[in-house]
Records
---
Amino acid sequence: MTLVYSNAVLTKITAPGTSDDYDTPAGAGTDRWTGSIDITVRRDPIVEVQGGQALDVVRSTRIEVPYDVGRLIQHGDTLTYDYEGREWDRAVDDVTRAPLTGRVRVELEPA
């Protein structure tokens, strides 16, 4: 199933890497999926209060992926996609699967 509206292209889903111990950072994981599929990216600013008088503006990014590929996405994966003329690599924070509508909604971690 294709999405009604798309403004980006998903090119890779990468599983999180692992490390032998906690003293060294995890390496890159293995690719769970590679290809080219149309997706919808939505970026919304959210203002968060971070203690006392400080205000931070954090941009919330959500994407919608057709179900056949989106069902492969898991928390902690890294998604690579082309949006607004550049390539983005973002970690997955939350996944909502909706097989009846043929879509998966993915919340990405703040950049």
---
Amino acid sequence: MKEPKSEIYTILSGLGSAYQMQSGVTRDMPCYIYEVTGNSPIYSMDKKVVYQNIEVTIDIYAENSKGSGVLLTTLVDTMLESNYRMIYSSDISNDKYSHIATVFNLVGY
């Protein structure tokens, strides 16, 4: 069985500052803040995990829109290399910094 929290941290920390989701806390910018928002295993008849439906929410924070856009492109490419595809992305309005919210899910196992 995959342990997505550790896996996602390893992926993101290779890109820069990565933190697990904490309510209302923004760390050093630029950074990625992530949360595993779904982890549903699918079992075979002999009770072994054959697939996991994993969903991860990753927020990108940067000082400006250009910076967050570059981070988004890099994130999408890196996550695809690890078999996660982006299924949602949205700019979040904020006067102090650029914030992009994304959701990824596991493509295969």
---
Amino acid sequence: MKTIYIFAMKPIIFGLIAFWGLFLMQCSHENDNNKHSIMQNESSGFTKITGYIHNRDIYPETKEVIVNVAHISGQDRMTQIKSPIKKDGTFYFEIDLARPQDVTIEPYLDFLYLIPGDSLHIELNFKNFSYIRLSGGKSAAINQDFFRYFDATGYRTTQYNYRGVGTDCEMNCSWAEIRKKMDKERSEYRERRQAFLRKNSVCDEVKYMTEAMIELDYYRRLVSIIMNREMMYGQETMPEDILMNEVNEAAVKYFNTDLYSFTHFRFTSAYMGAAKRLTKQDSDENLANWAKQVAITDTIRDFIMTISAGYALLSKDLEKFEKYSAHVTNEYLLDRLMQTYRVTLANMVNPENISANILGKPTDFSNIGSLDNNILSKIIAPNVGKVQVINISTTWCAPCMEALRQTNTLMNDYVGKDVCNSIISVSPDNDETRERYRKIGIDDEAIHYMPNEDAAFLMKTFAPIAFPYGILVNRKGVIVDYGPHVVPGIKLRDKINLLLEQDHLIK
């Protein structure tokens, strides 16, 4: 299984606008008080966000404002917290935070730094989307400094699909050319940052975070390019020991405070990739011992175990989560892990909240056939009563075809049982595509080809998407799991067997 990176998916990725999150926190605040009350345990503090939209009547069909919170796995996954927009243009959030962290309010704000226990008032304008006004506590002052910095330097850092330090010739240039281009771009951002700081007085948090973003972003991108060049194309890169020395220097410098952003989690994912490359580590067995050996500081070790535990939660693998999270000692990371765990657990027991949003908010899943507005409803409706495995696939993706072969073999073991498999094909509907599917044993009847509107729906709903991608549905027609991990070999058989007995993934 391979992630399809941005440079290889331009026709699809450029159409993505937001990831519809994994958790219960995605559900709109329906009660009169609009209280965000997912967490029942004590936490470090709620950040209150009040808001007002000028000229609200220009777009009356826009019903809600969405805050995206980055996932602790370091993956491009978002938890979405929604607030309805009232008729008078007001909206309200209470967000449970363990420590300060960055979020986005797409499409209005691609970076917003929040502080636990603080309050923030945001004014937007549907007549002029560049109009953004912040007021309130310390969060307002910090963010106003960030906005001035971003505007002055041209550096942007959205939570996903962002254009930070990088290069446009990752595969076509020599390694020396790539490094030269990246170093030049990093130097330009550094110089712009210094010029800004000379002219402006800003909060200490902004001084630290703006430097950390540039440096960590640089090394995250560097490791990503190396992995792509070596693993996918077999092209030359830099020596492993030199790479790890540079990455470790950045880690020591920018993981030495209690101020962390999504950039730190993304960097840690890259750090793990570089360390595994150096140590030839290709298994997650004894991950804790490996992390102790390769991590330059205890904080980096804790981050490694946190993002591993976070990815286990994305995969609905509670056994691995318990195994990895037991080795995390950092208070901030433990707090975030347990928040995410509680939400994930609640959704595994009660998956209707997620499924309803994806499928168009049905109130009665037994009547899902009446929902004909998206491709998933059309596929799920005639198969209610069966456990369904749905693959999003394309014939030009070798891992997709291999996953389909394995899924086809798996389905043979369930012949005569209430289990079925469907394929949503991103490839065009033509004789060549159909023949490729037939060669691996996929019948034409199992394949659903997407018109443009359905493709847009899927890419928006599950963005950013990695191929192969799977969706798991219980007998009631409720989506209980989805992601690149829903493929044979990653407990899929166990999950199917469990769903044949009950309606959720908690034993």
